[in-house]
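Handout for the seminar on molecular recognition.
Each group receives one record of this type.
Step one: identify the two inputs.
Step two: read the structure output and locate the region that could contact pantoate.
Step three: write two sentences on what you found, then compare them with the reference statements printed after the record.
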Amino acid sequence: MNVITTLQSLREYIELQKRECNKIAFVPTMGNLHQGHLDLVERAQSLADLVIVSIFVNPLQFEAGGDLDNYPKTLEADIEKLQQAGVDMLFAPDIQEVYGDNLSAITQVIVPGISALWCGASRAGHFEGVTTIVNKLFNLVQPDIAVFGEKDFQQLTIIRIMVRDLSIPVEIVSVATSREADGLAMSSRNGYLTKDEREIAAKLYETLVNVREILISERNPDFQKITQQAANSLNQKGFKTDYLAVCRQSDLQLAGPEDRKLVILAAAHLGKARLIDNLILDKLPAERLE
Ligand code: PAF
């Protein structure tokens, strides 16, 4: 596997691949790789001639005083995993290489509205940081396809909107959330959980499954009441629920009774970890529930 750390070498590498007409699939990451990332790599491999992964802990998407400094950095172990997975190239630049001395005044790519909802409401500037780096990485890597996990459903939706609005010639492919045996969504942040917290962490997924069951079985479900009860029950189990909401898949606004393509979004603190998860639901019209 090639490991490239500078923009210049990346440009030369990409130029060569384009000349050879290789179809490129790209998996952007922040490292600390787990099976969920390797599932994205596997999907990428099934879709293209060449798979490029990036590892870059992007300071723009962390709040000042947030967990940037504590974010786990495990480059050597990550390289080993990517090599074993048969990845063709890893792009792993440092902050200076990506942003130069211009980090505080960098041009930003902003998807308005949706970036301020949900995770964006509690993590100011987070999605602006994500869309800026993803756009920049797309310009550098020039992939045909980019693969993202559905666990970060809001991120995925925002990136799809960015690609549509800016006519970026990259096909966005999503992969279902990879889960531990008890249902907990795989995440680098699970490493922050203590042993006791880890035992209750899967209740977040269980709660979402429960909400989905209710939405499927009730004729006219009261979204507000159901999600409030679910959040209360999570809080009783030791979580501090940030949000739990039934939204429209397209724009993540709160869903109404007429909406069919739904996603149940949740974020909750458990000890030092902030866990997010979601479940997608394509609801049948009431008259077909009989
Ligand atoms: O999902 C992530 O790991 C990051 O938000 C991403 C897409 C690599 C951008 O830094």
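Reference statements: DSSP finds ten helices and nine strands in the chain. The two ends are 55 Å apart (CA to CA).
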